[in-house]
């Protein structure tokens, strides 16, 4: 599909349709697309665009099912974006608080901003027919369409989780809460929650996370008390377990690999402020800027380097590490509820390629670990091929590697901890802790 320029004049629904088009037709991430669009809208409109575009991602199979029954034939070429505009209209009519009048009228008007004034009649007819035929009131007897997931992922979850698959799918489609991690080098949980109380911010605490606060409704993060002073970072509860499982100690050399945007790096420093050296490594120079910004705001001092984890000759100083956190590149299927576009950006054959890359990095980093050292393998995936099966094979192939159980139920045949989406309000995540023989 040919690139589609951003509409010359800003319009809420036209810009939203452009975002949807970029994700589904150009394979762009929602973060990248929204960033471009949101530069020209106010905060309220930006929140609406994000809610609507990501809502379409969550309900896409059902929206497309309705669209196929309402369109005589697919739109092509530079008219394709109008299909995405109609999907937005259908979402508004059935899943949003937008009035039916505005959902139809404003969506029809948006066609002009997409250089398709001649298709306004088509948009109007499709949306009116959707209402007239009451398609929303007619159940669709198709589990995959109702799941909101692509067929390959639906089946992958079915195979991995069996009787629990429906719950995993439902949680994958749920809205994720916002977790904060209190920076205990700058403040305390008590002081931070007192500041939230004073500001009227609603939250809960986690029994399993000593430094965590969970917001009970959406907030402007930058407006929360203590943001500029580095009193907290945004980090999901599952990701907050990384530093806890890694157990950094004083006077150690620690590598945080694939570190961007730096949440786990910051938590490592906060957990062991007197450690000797922390290196945050990532291959993406743009994302490393986020690490720098976050470390500056949190007032942490770490070494930040760009480099390929599988090619340490370009960045390693030759001194082995006491502990390594490998937050491996993965399918990100555990954070789909937070980034619903991921389900449409990932393809089935990506999993095999990612598993091969993970193993290559794991083998390489193992050689940089001191005898007696610890490597914590982590992914935000819920698929066994990237997680338990990966570690099973690594242990079988690596004589000087042994499992250091995180939970009591772990065995060599069933290594690591798999967290599923929604478990204790957390994202889907996997951890396995490995120790290198000192012999």
Can you describe this structure?
This is 16S rRNA (cytosine(967)-C(5))-methyltransferase. It is an enzyme of class 2 (transferase). GO terms for molecular function: RNA binding; rRNA (cytosine-C5-)-methyltransferase activity. It catalyses: cytidine(967) in 16S rRNA + S-adenosyl-L-methionine = 5-methylcytidine(967) in 16S rRNA + S-adenosyl-L-homocysteine + H(+). It is found in: Cytoplasm. The protein has 439 residues and is of the alpha/beta class. It folds into three domains: 129 residues, N-utilizing Substance Protein B Homolog, Chain A (Orthogonal Bundle); 57 residues, Alpha-Beta Plaits; 196 residues, Rossmann fold (3-Layer(aba) Sandwich). It is built from 16 helices and twelve strands. Strands 5, 6, 7, 8, 9, 10, 11 and 12 form an eight-stranded mixed β-sheet that branches. A four-stranded antiparallel β-sheet has the order 2-3-1-4, with helices on both faces. β2 and β3 form a beta hairpin. α1 packs across α3 and α8 crosses α9. The radius of gyration is 24 Å and the shape is globular. The model has no long low-confidence stretch (mean pLDDT 96).
